[in-house]
């Protein structure tokens, strides 16, 4: 397992930390309660100060906002809610002036039902764009063509009364799936990518990229063996005929080839199908994604044993020369600070920035933002209404960023589109800027440490046996050996060391450069990075 490279000039996407911004919730500039590009532009100095190397921006395209921008009605324009193409160009320039890359979210699997392509496609069976979407006749009883289910509930097939066929939608019924088998669709999409690459974006995060192709025979999905009364109904069947199909892999290769027409760009992909299948989304005979996104840290039980096992499983599931990637938060998953608590969220941060591979976190994680509590009646995310009762509402992790402790948290002068949530007084940027032991300080120091310690991005990863729920591993390069020890419990623990070392950073931010001999004492919820002074543990 060697992720080490002799030269220290790694590609940017290997050594930068990536920061996901959900534009609705980052910074509002015009008082409508929804974040926008000019708001984001006013915060680029914060991003530079924080030390992130790239921003991944969730969709800002024109959209009816049924899925808050993941339902696109024009791929080559900015929605007026967020601003204009000129604002976008200014944002790219401002980020680049600060050496920050911009990764744009793109959504190739589906469009909005308002997209002119779909409007034409559904206009008649003879329309030249009919075959741009996935249309099928009813089954023998007049019902949907097969048992495929939408991830957002109910059949994935929607009846079109005028043309008397069903269209397929893996997500909302307002998000019809494009027919990627049709070369004209792939051609049009390649031009969409080129449009943004020419505007200077440094890469894409490809949304729902594993579900581009569906089985042409429309075979029924088999039952999901793990389905029980707690499983949300959309997961009743195993997605064998609609997820990670071989054709999808070749479409990803085509997208990669478009990226390669431009120097120094990166392709990130949202992939499904579980950790064991993640390896196939990297390079096969032809390159696929640079970084197929890995959500393991969000899906693993939070204890040293489960983490060690999960990390091991992931590292073994990717090809030897593949570059790992880790995600700590996203607009689709409950916030880490709520799931494991604010103390352990510090451990999670140290883990994220010391594991081998590219770290990705979500705006607000750096101040320990919690989920905002949102009742079903207040829910804006349609997922909640369509599949109620399983806690699937994604609004809690989409609450606005807190810049200060004022009533509107510095996010807007108007009414925020979602309630701000709890702990605004202490969990905001201004409060944590003036506290040198805050979560924000920790994030900043961890990113700074990664910059000054190339061993943390290119060193070999050496797992060690966990002791008393303290997760242990090393990162090693020719001349340096770093030990990372993370106490995943609320008790104190002592770890026996075979070598002496020097403590470089504690998650508590109160001890630095302390020598440690044979025993490392860790306080509750404490993690440390140590530089080892002699050769082996
Ligand atoms: C991805 C996005 C999610 C969206 C879905 C449909 O999973 O991350 O927010 O709802 O795709 O576009
Ligand atoms: Mg599809």
UniProtKB/TrEMBL annotation:
- Biological process (GO), any one: oligosaccharide catabolic process
- A Pfam family cross-referenced in the UniProt record is Alpha-amylase
Known Gene3D superfamilies for this protein? Answer: Glycosidases, Golgi alpha-mannosidase II, Oligo-1,6-glucosidase, Domain 2
Where do the Glycosyl hydrolase family 13 catalytic domain residues begin and end? 20-398
CDD domains named in the record: AmyAc_OligoGlu_like
Q: Which InterPro entries match?
A: GH (IPR017853), GH13_cat_dom (IPR006047), Glyco_hydro_b (IPR013780), O16G_dom_2 (IPR045857)
**What UniProt keywords apply to this chain's record, in alphabetical order?**
Glycosidase, Hydrolase
List the Gene Ontology MF annotations in alphabetical order: alpha-amylase activity
Among PANTHER family, the record links this protein to: ALPHA-AMYLASE FAMILY MEMBER, NEUTRAL AND BASIC AMINO ACID TRANSPORT PROTEIN RBAT
Q: To which protein family does this belong?
A: Belongs to the glycosyl hydrolase 13 family.
Identification of the protein by name? DUF3459 domain-containing protein
From which organism does this entry originate?
Rhizobium meliloti
């Amino acid at each position: 397992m060697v992720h080490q490279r002799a030269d220290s000039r790694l590609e940017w996407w290997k050594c930068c930390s990536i920061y996901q911004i959900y534009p609705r919730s980052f910074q509002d500039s015009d008082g409508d309660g929804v974040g926008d590009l000019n708001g984001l532009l006013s915060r680029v100095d914060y991003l530079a100060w924080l030390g992130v190397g790239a921003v991944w921006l969730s969709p800002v395209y024109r959209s009816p906002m049924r899925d808050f921008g993941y339902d696109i009605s024009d791929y080559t324009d900015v929605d007026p809610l967020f601003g204009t193409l000129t604002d976008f160009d200014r944002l790219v320039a401002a980020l680049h002036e600060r050496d920050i890359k911009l990764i744009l979210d793109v959504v190739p699997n589906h469009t909005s039902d308002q997209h002119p392509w779909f409007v034409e496609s559904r206009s008649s069976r003879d329309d030249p764009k009919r075959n741009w979407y996935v249309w099928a006749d009813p089954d023998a009883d007049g019902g949907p063509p097969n048992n495929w289910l939408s991830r957002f509930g109910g059949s994935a097939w929607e009846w079109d009364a005028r043309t008397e066929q069903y269209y397929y939608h893996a997500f909302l019924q307002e998000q019809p799936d494009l027919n990627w088998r049709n070369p004209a669709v792939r051609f049009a999409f390649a031009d969409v990518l080129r449009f943004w690459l020419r505007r200077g974006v440094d890469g894409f995060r490809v949304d729902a990229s594993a579900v581009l192709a569906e089985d042409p025979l429309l075979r029924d999905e088999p039952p999901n063996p793990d389905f029980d009364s707690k499983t949300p109904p959309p997961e009743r069947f195993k997605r064998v005929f609609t997820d990670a199909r071989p054709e999808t892999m070749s479409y990803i290769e085509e997208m990669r080839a478009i990226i390669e027409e431009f120097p120094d760009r990166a392709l990130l992909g949202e992939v499904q199908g579980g950790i064991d299948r993640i390896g196939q989304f990297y390079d096969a005979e032809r390159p696929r994604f640079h970084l197929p996104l890995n959500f393991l840290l969000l899906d693993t039980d939070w204890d040293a044993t489960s983490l060690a096992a999960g990390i091991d499983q992931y590292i073994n599931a990717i090809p030897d020369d593949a570059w790992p990637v880790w995600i700590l938060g996203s607009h689709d998953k409950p916030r880490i600070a709520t799931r494991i608590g604010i103390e352990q969220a510090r451990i999670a941060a140290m883990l994220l920035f010391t594991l081998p591979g590219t770290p990705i976190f979500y705006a607000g994680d750096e101040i320990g933002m919690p989920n905002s509590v949102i009742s079903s009646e207040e829910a804006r995310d349609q997922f909640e209404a369509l599949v109620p009762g399983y806690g699937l509402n994604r609004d809690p992790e989409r609450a606005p960023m807190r810049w200060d402790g004022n009533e509107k948290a510095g996010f807007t002068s108007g009414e925020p589109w979602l309630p701000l949530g709890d702990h605004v007084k202490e969990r905001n940027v201004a409060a944590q800027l003036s506290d040198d032991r805050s979560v924000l300080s920790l994030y900043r120091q961890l990113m700074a440490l990664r910059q000054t310690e190339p061993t943390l991005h290119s060193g070999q990863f050496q797992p060690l046996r966990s002791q008393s729920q303290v997760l242990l591993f090393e990162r090693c390069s020719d001349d340096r050996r770093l030990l990372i020890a993370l106490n995943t419990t609320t008790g104190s623990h002592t770890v026996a060391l075979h070598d002496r070392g020097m403590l470089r950073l504690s998650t508590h931010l109160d001890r630095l450069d302390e020598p440690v001999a044979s025993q490392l004492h860790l306080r509750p919820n404490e993690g440390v990075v140590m530089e080892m002074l002699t050769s082996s543990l």
